[in-house]
């Protein structure tokens, strides 16, 4: 069941869980979360809609952020993003 | 372990489809026609899933995230498909036909555009996402594309009162002319019947090739008119506009930064602009590559269907159904929905009508099913097998890439899927096509209608994105209220 979860886990790190959501929600929530954190902060995004990944990766690249880690497990995609 | 299980599922699904194909072939060689639809559907499904090929994503990701990958992918597909289409037209092996031209295409496209953004996928996108295990898309397909469409074309009563008198009069005159000519009494009962017979049927149908040749196109007209003027030039122009307004700024900034680093003057020229365009096209290799393949496959599909029609000496699968004795499957004029190319929504409408008939709703008393498309049993519906092929092909590809995940939607997503699906269903009927039949096939086939519908889709998507932006912002504010 889908319910967006945005948590602050330290002063500089945040978790965004948008599992269960379909397009365009994962990309919209990722974009909005990145807008709300500071430069240099880390955002860990978890989602399970494969179609969103292609867009999120390009969106991060064109905005000048960095993907530090990219993994998939059990249909869940996890991206660790540093805001640039 | 998970990988092994997914591979096993992929083989199992493909094996079942092979078995079904063999059973149909054994039952009657005429079913080869239907088997072709199954396997082209399967191929589309695999390509759509691999390339994340969704028409909703094209304008939505551009407006919402500034990402042009899907818009570019579709335009690449369009260019390749238009060339294949022109070749097929020039050797008289095309099943393509233009649609009635008019403002209804723009309005219809706008409604569809809002719907596809809310539902999270276009008509073809929703099918491939069902194959990924996405049940929100299944809701959009069942309630919007299936039931919504069927009810939409069948309702009458007070809705008939909304029809202009001129449409009603024309519909009656046309019905009288058909009765006088063929003896068939066409069913004009619903609002859609009046709209179809009294308005749409009287709109001009043309391709650019016909327009520039005075109605008698030759090979050069197909290539210059249909492919070059109606498809390739507009597609390249749109790509340039997208490039200018979206990735160009970042590309040039990076280019200048790199030049400075190398100790060069940060001056960029035309070659850098071309490099920027190429970088945009290749930014998502899987989407662009699938664009090429989708374009070529859609052309091959037309060629194969034309070959099938020649082999059996028919223009519509309805004739074959009648030869096999299935007279109740076909419409009053002996046809069933058999587009002869990639198409999505009408067959889903037939599923909805088939279900509603089981509950006692008469769906034969309207033009859409009763006179034009027929209502075959689901297992004898050729285009429906294409849709099932898309779902299963996408499921196989998602399984092979370990991306399949069964997702039950939350109440919020149920609302989006249901409302978006309904709007997609409503937005694909007045135009007689969706993002595929209304836009993609027509734009590549030389019919300017495709671009009118496509413009509507983009306008609708823009407002859909505005709405979802507002909604997600509201949700984020709630989530961030504690810190």
Give the structural class of chain A.
Answer: alpha+beta
Number of domains of chain A: 1
Q: What share of the residues of chain A does DSSP label as strand, in percent?
A: 35-45%
Order of helices and strands of chain B: HHHHHHHHHHHHHHHHHHHHH
Strand elements of chain B, count = 0
For the record, give the distance between the C-alpha atoms at the N and C termini of chain B, rounded to a whole number.
Answer: 41 Å
Q: Indicate the radius of gyration of chain B in whole angstroms.
A: 23 Å
Distance between the termini of chain A: 32 Å
Oligomerization status of the protein chains:
heterodimer
- CATH H-level superfamily title of chain A: TusA-like domain
Proportion of beta-strand residues of chain B: under 5%
**Silhouette of chain B:** globular
* Number of domain units of chain B: 1
Structural class of chain B: mainly alpha
Largest interface: A-B, 38 and 53 residues
Q: Estimate the global geometry of chain A from the Cα principal axes.
A: globular
Q: Can you give the mean pLDDT of chain A? A: 91
- Report the helical percentage of chain A: 25-40%
In short:
By secondary structure, chain A is of the alpha+beta class. Chain A has helices spanning 25-36, 50-63, and strands at residues 5-10, 13-17, 42-47, 66-73, 76-82. Chain A has a 5-stranded mixed sheet, covered by helices on one side.
Description:
The complex is a heterodimer of chains A (84) and B (483). Chain A has a single domain, classed as TusA-like domain (Translation Initiation Factor IF3), CATH 3.30.110. Chain A is 31% helix and 38% strand. Chain A has a five-stranded mixed β-sheet, covered by helices on one side. With 483 residues, chain B is mostly helical. Chain B contains 21 helices and no strands. The two termini of chain B are 41 Å apart. The model of chain B has no long low-confidence stretch (mean pLDDT 95). The chains are: A alpha+beta (84), B mainly alpha (483).
